[in-house]
UniProtKB/TrEMBL annotation:
<dbReference type="GO" id="GO:0016020">
    <property type="term" value="C:membrane"/>
</dbReference>
<feature type="transmembrane region" description="Helical">
    <location>
        <begin position="272"/>
        <end position="298"/>
    </location>
</feature>
<feature type="transmembrane region" description="Helical">
    <location>
        <begin position="176"/>
        <end position="196"/>
    </location>
</feature>
<dbReference type="InterPro" id="IPR036259">
    <property type="entry name" value="MFS_trans_sf"/>
</dbReference>
<feature type="transmembrane region" description="Helical">
    <location>
        <begin position="310"/>
        <end position="327"/>
    </location>
</feature>
<protein>
    <submittedName>
        <fullName>MFS transporter</fullName>
    </submittedName>
</protein>
<feature type="transmembrane region" description="Helical">
    <location>
        <begin position="409"/>
        <end position="427"/>
    </location>
</feature>
<keyword id="KW-0472">Membrane</keyword>
<feature type="transmembrane region" description="Helical">
    <location>
        <begin position="113"/>
        <end position="137"/>
    </location>
</feature>
<keyword id="KW-1133">Transmembrane helix</keyword>
<feature type="transmembrane region" description="Helical">
    <location>
        <begin position="56"/>
        <end position="76"/>
    </location>
</feature>
<feature type="transmembrane region" description="Helical">
    <location>
        <begin position="334"/>
        <end position="357"/>
    </location>
</feature>
<keyword id="KW-0812">Transmembrane</keyword>
<feature type="domain" description="Major facilitator superfamily (MFS) profile">
    <location>
        <begin position="22"/>
        <end position="459"/>
    </location>
</feature>
<dbReference type="InterPro" id="IPR020846">
    <property type="entry name" value="MFS_dom"/>
</dbReference>
<dbReference type="InterPro" id="IPR011701">
    <property type="entry name" value="MFS"/>
</dbReference>
<feature type="transmembrane region" description="Helical">
    <location>
        <begin position="208"/>
        <end position="225"/>
    </location>
</feature>
Length: 459
């Protein structure tokens, strides 16, 4: 199939054939990134054992990936506005693929940590422009459908990561967790070079000092979350909190007056954008609280194996897969505030139902509750994505796309940190406390989402 260059530069999406191939390329890239965010947690014990390192030291395999992603997301999103989302997306996929090969070939903990650092940078480049790229691939009338497909890939990647890791480790060694990305990444780059659309480029330039301040500000923020999750003392946490605030202050001062700030404070002046970002942070915090705490309940309290735990988590992912495309299509016809509010209300009620599990629950008792949560979570994502991207001007699609990914990762990181706090309060009731917090976060997201029905006509 020959696709003319004019089609690749289409202002209102790509033709159907090119659109499918372009979406496949983007989906492979973002799917790998989302999967690897979750997959390494499950593999940490096996990796620590084979590399002859301590569990505490092996945590850096996860931490450095998260640090690199969150610290560089917004700079890559801003770069996409300047040089084009296509270039940044292809660079991200290529970097992630090469780093995955380096991870598979790693011979020591330091070599694996360095490879994971570059893998996180590649993932940030993909995630930073991912939503803007989807917006360029699909015509305006199908944006909801495109965001639904994108939400499906991201949510399922995060959700099935632990199960996929368990299955791979049952038949192969840990390097295969990363090696499987290599052929997929090569395919994604080949397809992307062929069909990913060229987009309008902004006239402003990237300010390097601002990018550096952004890296330190968000890097310290995630480092603080991670140290809090590992129950570090205030002697370590307090200086990190102070340093984080200082760098955020310097970042805001440096970019003040810029037409397209890297940390897009200009977009937060739009009520619909702010409420949509708040909805995303709270909903992903609820997911993070549930996904980190529930495995402890399944394995420690119920005595399930890691593989059984993975399958008990599967109904959530399965129903997200079913609902995300449906919600995406509905968002082309109905207000995002109403759809997102319904989804987060279902999620909150599902989390409350999890709190009411009987003392010795059956698989069915757990399964329908997890499925209910998955329905709610899947119903929220695509409409919320459309609201965030639709409330930003086309020229600021990169900044909006960066906030989409940043909100997701900050929500998940804060959820994980709060789980650690819940278990410090009570080792036996930590999961219950975490689920209560998760239900509260989902409730706040519900209020924020329905509030968009009031402000949507003001923009």
């Amino acid at each position: 199939m020959n696709i003319p260059d004019s089609a690749l530069a289409a202002r209102d999406g790509l033709p159907p054939d090119a659109r499918r191939i372009a979406m496949l390329s983007v989906a492979i890239g973002v799917g790998m990134s989302a999967l690897d965010t979750a997959i390494a947690n499950t593999a940490l014990p096996a990796i620590a054992d084979q590399l002859h390192t301590t569990p505490a030291a092996s945590v850096w395999i996860v931490n450095v990936y998260q640090l690199a992603m969150v610290a560089t997301l917004l700079p890559f999103a801003a770069l996409g506005e300047v040089i084009g989302y296509r270039r940044v997306c292809l660079f991200g996929i290529a970097m992630f693929t090469a780093a995955s090969l380096a991870c598979a070939l790693a011979w020591s903990l330091p070599s694996l940590v360095i490879a994971r650092l570059f893998q996180g940078i590649g993932g940030a480049a993909m995630m930073g422009v991912n939503t803007a790229m989807v917006r360029a691939i699909f015509p305006a009338k199908l944006h909801g459908h495109g965001f639904g497909l994108n939400s499906l890939v991201v949510a399922v990647g995060f959700a099935v990561g632990p199960t996929a890791a368990s299955l791979i480790l049952a038949v192969a060694s840990w390097p295969w967790l990363f090696a499987i990305n290599v052929p997929l990444g090569v395919i994604a780059v080949a397809l992307g070079r062929r069909v990913l659309p060229h987009t309008h480029r902004a006239s402003h330039k990237i300010d390097a000092p601002t990018a550096i301040l952004n890296v330190f500000a968000f890097g310290l923020l995630i480092l603080t979350f991670g140290d809090a999750a590992h129950q570090e003392g205030w002697r370590k946490l307090l200086p990190e909190v102070i340093a984080t605030l200082i760098f955020f202050g310097l970042l805001l001062r440096r970019q003040a007056g810029h037409a397209a700030p890297m940390l897009p404070v200009d977009l937060f002046r739009r009520p619909l954008f702010t409420l949509s970002a708040l909805t995303a942070v709270c909903t992903f915090a609820a997911q993070g609280l549930a996904f980190v705490s529930l495995p402890f309940y399944f394995e420690t309290t119920l005595g399930r194996s890691p593989i059984e735990t993975g399958f008990l988590m599967t109904p959530w992912a399965a129903l997200v897969a079913v609902m995300a495309p449906i919600a995406g299509r509905l968002s082309d016809r109905y207000p995002a505030g109403a759809l997102g509010g319904i989804g987060t209300a279902l999620l909150s009620s599902g989390l409350v139902a999890m709190l009411m599990l009987p003392p010795n629950p059956t698989v069915l008792d757990i399964g329908w509750r997890m499925a209910w949560c998955g329905i709610g979570f899947g119903f929220f994502q695509a409409p919320n994505l459309k609201a965030i991207m639709g409330s930003a001007p086309p020229a600021r699609a990169g900044g909006a796309s960066g906030i989409v990914a940043t909100a997701r990762l900050i929500g998940q990181a804060s959820g994980a940190a709060l789980v650690a706090y819940c278990f410090t309060l009570s080792a036996t009731r930590g999961t219950s406390y975490a689920l209560i917090l998760a239900a509260v976060f989902a409730g706040v997201a519900c209020i924020a989402s329905f509030s968009r029905l009031v402000v949507s006509n003001e923009l």
